[in-house]
Amino acid sequence: MSFFDDVVGKLFGKQPSKAAYIHEVLERSEKQLANYQAWLHTEEGIDLLKEIERGYYLKKQGMLSEIDVHLLDSKYANGFAISYNESIGKENFRNIFDYLKEKVSENGYKIAQADRRILDKESHEETIEKWYLKPISEELEAGIVNQRFGNVLIEKIDVDRKPGYIKFMANVYQDRQYTEAEPFQDLLDKVFDIKP
Fold first, then answer.
1. pLDDT at 9 exceeding the cut of 60
2. Which residues have a Cβ under 8 Å from the Cβ of 88 and sit 6 or more positions away?
3. Strands (E) located in the chain
């Protein structure tokens, strides 16, 4: 806490925690997009994506891998998270985040929200970049909507401007207006269909 915050706190009492002090649309520069496209065809990028896939399946078997993968599994939401480590590298980490979005987009999804929020927490600064994707509406018979794999949320969290983790989640609807969700495994197969 700064001297100023301490004085203000003594004069006016403790102030509530600040909300997002930056909230903006998440966009990539032309340079970032070009770097991403080049990265997709590098041995380093392909090997890294294969290692994440391997880490996911090892974790399902209760084993650890070089990349720390966490499973997120519930009745209505399935996914995984990838913890950052120095061997990945910041730019590669951002490219993984964008790769996940691209693979979902290629399979009948559109971006519903893309934003970056920077939050001032009590003990740290948190940056959340988010891709939120929904299936492209496909109404079937009797007004039923095909939900595909559900809505997909992909977040990259940085703490004090250092990469933390990437979260990939598919959230399904349990509503008669929607078809039953396709298996999460089928979405994973599409995401990890890595083509050099």
1. no
2. 48, 67, 96, 163
3. 20-25, 69-73, 77-83, 109-120, 125-135, 151-159, 162-171
Supply 25's token pair.
Answer: 């649309």
C-alpha count within 13 angstroms, C-beta hemisphere, residue 115: 9
Of 43, 193, 92, 66, the C-alpha closest to 58 is 66
- DSSP code at position 117: E
Alpha-carbon dihedral of residues 88, 165, 132, 63, nearest 10 degrees? 80
First to last CA, the chain: 49
CB atoms under 10 Å from CB of 51, counted, come to 17
Q: Tell me whether residue 104 is exposed, middle or buried, using C-beta atoms within 10 angstroms of its C-beta: 0 to 12, 13 to 18, 19 or more.
A: buried
Going from the C-alpha of 118 to that of each of 7, 19, 25, 112, 150, the distances in angstroms are 25, 9, 12, 20, 27
In single-letter form, the type of residue at position 114 comes to: A
Q: What is the pLDDT of residues 49-93, one digit of tens each?
A: 999 999 999 999 999 999 999 999 998 999 999 999 999 999 999
Distance (Å) of CA 162 to CA 90, 141, 166, 195: 8, 48, 12, 29
